[in-house]
Amino acid sequence: MSMEIERKFLLPALPEAIRERFVVRSEQRIEQTYLAIDDTQELRIRRITDLATGARTYTHTFKNGKGLAREEIEYAISESLYGQVAEAFGAVALTKIRTTAEWEGLVVEIDRYDQLDLTVLEVEFDSEDAAHAFVAPDWFGRDISAEKAYSNKTVWRSLQRK
């Protein structure tokens, strides 16, 4: 299993002066549905559409742990399998636009959610020490890495109740 080590920030707005220093790698529309969730584990599927090319990929992901570092297994699945599982589960997918960019030597992911007014900036790290040592600029917004209310699975659960 690989480790996902990331910090998340509640991005209020991306300042124009900063936007000019971003090098955008990709923009994707992500639709994700959770199949099983508990406090420390999650199982989900995703349909990912590249906004530049229209190409679609499908993934199945298992995550274990909570907080800054979690184990993650992710692999590609077929469109057919994705469709069968999504239909069988019948849940509302969480949808967002993800911009992956480089900024001052870091890769950042900015997720803008469709179903609610929420924009999150994530930074992934090679180690927990690097993640703890990172000093975020003020414009990143509040560090929400440890706030359960902003986890994708919590946001997704709230959509199922509407």
TrEMBL record:
Domain CYTH: 2-162
Entries under InterPro entries matching the protein: CYTH-like_dom_sf, CYTH_domain, NeuTTM/CthTTM-like
Gene3D superfamilies with a match to the protein in the record: Hypothetical Protein Pfu-838710-001
Catalytic residues of the enzyme: Y34 (proton acceptor)
Pfam families linked to this entry: CYTH
This protein's name: CYTH domain-containing protein
Organism: Cohnella nanjingensis
